[in-house]
């Protein structure tokens, strides 16, 4: 069981705010931390990893205090593995040496992970010859080589195309079930959070605004879309607005009063109610 209640003052685009993270995580649970940029998500992972200290509060893992008043367990003594967005691999080491890097890493564990991540055939390859998907597999294998209690993932799949991303999500789920570690994921991508999390902590300006399952958080009859206004045409009792969404132009009809104060070039939120999509097929 992991319990935590800590805080830290941070500076964001809107000025200074205080991060406050409180809750608990069960053994073998997968947690997603979701929210806007600058909400404090990555800082939470860095505090778990021991790379930053909170200003106050406690972090306790299986009864052992990692952070508390006058208590700070150094990073090398924490049973955590960390995977960063930029992989942070050692360019002077080959694939196998990267996975086996670190004090106390067992050769048998390295061999097992190389096989599980389909890296055994390229174990001698230099890092600069790897594809993005291969490099991310190496980073994940290295993080797991010390047999951590907690795997911390900071936007780990954002630079990958959807086919490689899809395969790595499946692999992470399989590894978590087989090895039984706690997984804490930070991501802006709803698909990653949805598929890799049992529960989601949603952050806004450092505060937890919701703790829900992926289904509770993301599924519902209403869909909110953030769009850019391209044109507005008033047609008497109604109005037509054209907006840009994901490089596509869409047209909506609405009441003129809904457009009061809205100008061309504004970014607005449109809510689609009773949304019932027609599935055309895979793209």
Provide structural commentary.
This protein has a six-stranded mixed sheet, sandwiched between helices. The relative contact order is 0.14. The protein is 24% helix and 36% strand. It has helices at residues 41-49, 95-99, 107-116, 132-144, 162-179, 190-196, 214-218, and strands spanning 2-12, 15-25, 30-35, 56-61, 64-68, 71-72, 80-83, 150-154, 182-186, 199-204, 207-212, 223-235, 238-245, 248-254, 267-272. The chain is globular. The longest helix is centred in the middle third of the chain and has 18 residues, at 162-179. It has two domains: 2-218, Rossmann fold, CATH 3.40.50.300; 223-272, OB fold (Dihydrolipoamide Acetyltransferase, E2P) (Beta Barrel).
Topology:
Blueprint: E1 2-12, E2 15-25, E3 30-35, H1 41-49, E4 56-61, E5 64-68, E6 71-72, E7 80-83, H2 95-99, H3 107-116, H4 132-144, E8 150-154, H5 162-179, E9 182-186, H6 190-196, E10 199-204, E11 207-212, H7 214-218, E12 223-235, E13 238-245, E14 248-254, E15 267-272
Keywords:
alpha/beta, Rossmann fold, 2 domains, six-stranded mixed beta sheet, globular
Brief summary:
The chain is α/β, with parallel strands linked by helices and about 280 residues long.
The Rg value, from CA coordinates, equals 22 Å
Topology pattern, helix = H, strand = E: EEEHEEEEHHHEHEHEEHEEEE
CATH H-level superfamily title of the largest domain: P-loop containing nucleotide triphosphate hydrolases
- What is the distance, rounded to the nearest whole angstrom, between the alpha carbons of the first and last residues? 42 Å
Mean pLDDT: 88
Number of separate domains: 2
Strand content: 35-45%
């Amino acid at each position: 069981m992991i319990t935590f209640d800590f805080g830290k003052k941070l500076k964001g685009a809107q000025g200074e705010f205080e991060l406050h993270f409180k809750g608990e995580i069960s053994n073998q649970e997968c947690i997603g931390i979701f929210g806007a940029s600058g909400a404090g998500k990555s800082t939470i992972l860095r505090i778990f990893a021991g790379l930053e200290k909170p200003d106050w509060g406690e972090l306790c893992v299986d009864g052992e205090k990692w952070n508390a008043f006058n208590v700070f367990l150094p990073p090398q003594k924490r049973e955590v593995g960390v995977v960063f967005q930029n992989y942070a691999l050692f360019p002077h080491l080959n694939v196998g040496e990267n996975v086996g890097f670190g004090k106390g890493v067992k050769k048998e564990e390295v061999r097992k992970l190389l096989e599980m991540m389909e890296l055994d055939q390229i174990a001698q390859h230099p890092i600069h010859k790897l594809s993005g998907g291969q490099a991310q597999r190496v980073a994940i294998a290295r993080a797991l080589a010390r047999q951590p209690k907690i795997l911390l993932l900071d936007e780990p799949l954002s630079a990958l195309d959807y086919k490689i991303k899809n395969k790595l999500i499946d692999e992470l789920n399989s590894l978590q079930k087989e090895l039984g570690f706690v997984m804490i994921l930070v991501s802006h991508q709803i698909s990653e959070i949805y598929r890799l999390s049992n529960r989601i902590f949603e952050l806004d300006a450092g505060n937890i605004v919701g703790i829900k399952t992926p289904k509770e958080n993301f599924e519902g009859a209403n869909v909110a879309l953030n769009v850019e206004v391209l044109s507005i045409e008033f047609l008497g009792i109604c109005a037509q607005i054209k907006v840009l969404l994901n490089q596509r132009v869409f047209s909506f009809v609405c009441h003129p009063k809904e457009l009061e104060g809205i100008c061309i070039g504004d970014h607005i939120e449109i809510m689609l109610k009773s949304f019932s999509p027609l599935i055309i097929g895979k793209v």
